[in-house]
Protein: Hikeshi-like domain-containing protein
Amino acid sequence: MFSVILPGRPCLTDIVAVDAQPNGQATKFAFNFPLTPYFSELVVFFLPGTVLPQDTAAAIYIQYPGSDFRFIGALANEKPSSIIKVSPPRRTEAQDEDQMLDAGSGNNSAVVVTLGISIEPVQVVAPQLAALENDNGSGAVSGNELVRLTPQQKGVTTKVLAQRIIGNAFNFLASFSGSSDPSGRGQDVVPLKAFQDWWTKFERKINNDPTFLEREDPSANG
Structure:
C-alpha cells in the first residue's frame, strides 16, 4: 500500500503489517531502516492503486532508538504523497565506527528507526495535524503534510469564504470598469469577457491550490 524514500537510499518496500487480521484487512503498518547515514527528510507515498476507505487518513509516526512514537504527518486519498522534514538524533563518529565493526563481525545490531503508518478516521488525524502545525510555529497546514481539512475544521466559516470570493472578484474586475456615459458621469460597467476571464483564472487557481481562500491572507488579485 505504501512506500518510503530516504534521499540517497534505495526505495523502501519491505512493509510489515503490524495488526494483520484473519481477513487480511490490516490497518497498521511499519517500515524499519537504519538510523545512519543521517537523513533530514523522507518521502511517504501511496503505491499505485491504493485507495483508503472513505473518511479515513493514513497517520504517519516515527520512532527513534530509545524514544516513543511521534506523529509527523499524514496522507489521504486527496494527498497521496508527502515530503516530511525530520530531526533524527545525531550519532558520533565513534558510534558509527562501532556499528561498522559490529557489522563486519556478523553482529546485526544496527540502530534502527521505525516508521509507523496507521489508517485512522479523519476526525482523529485532523487535530493531530493542527497540533503539529502549532508546534512548528505556524497557523496554517503546509502542503507537504496536508490531509485536506474542511473550512469548519480550520476555523474558516462559509461567510468568510464568500466574502473572500467576492473580494477576489472585485479586485480583479475593478481594473476593467468603465463608464456607460462618454462624459464619464454614468454608472461603472464591466465587460462580460472580464468576468469570464476572472472566472477562468479563479477556477484554475482553485484547481492548483484548493485551500488558498482558507488562508488568513489570500492573494488579492486572484
User: Anything to note?
Assistant: Residues 158-214 form one domain. The two ends are 38 Å apart (CA to CA). Confidence is low (pLDDT under 50) at residues 138-154.
